[in-house]
Amino acid sequence: MNLEFQIEGGNFSRAGHASSEIKKMLKQLGVDSRCIKNIVIAMYEAEVNVVAHAFEGLIQVHIESDKITTVISDKGPGIADVDLAMQEGYSTASKKVREMGFGAGMGLPNIKKNTDELTIESTVNKGTTVKMVNHF
Amino acid sequence: MKVSDLIEQLNLKVISGEKGLDREISGAYVSDLLSDVMGNAKEEQLWITLQVHQNVMAIASLKDLAAVILVKGLQPHKSTIEHSNEEQIPILSTSDSTFDISGKLYALLKQQ
After folding, report:
1. How many angstroms separate the CA of residue A127 from the nearest CA in chain B?
2. Which A residues in the span 23-52 are in contact with B, Cβ-Cβ below 8 Å?
3. Does the structural domain B3-110 have CATH classification 3.40.1390.20?
4. pLDDT tens across B72-112, in order?
5. Domain A2-135 belongs to what topology?
């Protein structure tokens, strides 16, 4: 089964909307609640990253009998140094975004902690694709 | 203990999300960093914060939190109130500082 949601860059009033919709669907499908909790944390962080940094993005969720694969791809500035971005506390978020309580450099570490497999592919000035896999 | 039990004992004002006042409370989490709450808060916890924008409610909903307590008399944005009513997760207000309300709540929950 496949689900798709658009993410609008820069629109914080909609941040979390896609994650919320996908959470409802996973609940309806009877996916294990611990697994939903982990996916929701990782997906929300990825969604907020698109809102905070990119122009637009797409979440694609692919559900199989033993795992969920979530791919978040965006058109945006990309990440110059992925290893650096993965470090706790490192952030390139704007002052405005930080004042809202985002941009603490905890997003990507949160994603890593809550997924079984994580791959990040990024091209500067083009965009980023985050692929995460959660096993049931 | 339910959210409604706290109102009188902690002298809280209910701002919105009245339909969620019978939610059970398992504890609380105190933070103003959204990713910290996203990563570490547990379901049925209260969230004590000074953030007033609507992303607070997005997180409260995604994490199945019991209610949000805003400190120092801070008022939520209109969109935050709307989201709270939609999700039926109460926003409560206190004139106390984060330290004071956390201490009072801790003492109250410890009696249980």
Report:
1. 22
2. 23, 37, 40-41, 44-45, 48
3. yes
4. 999 999 999 999 999 999 999 999 999 999 999 999 999 87
5. Heat Shock Protein 90 (3.30.565)
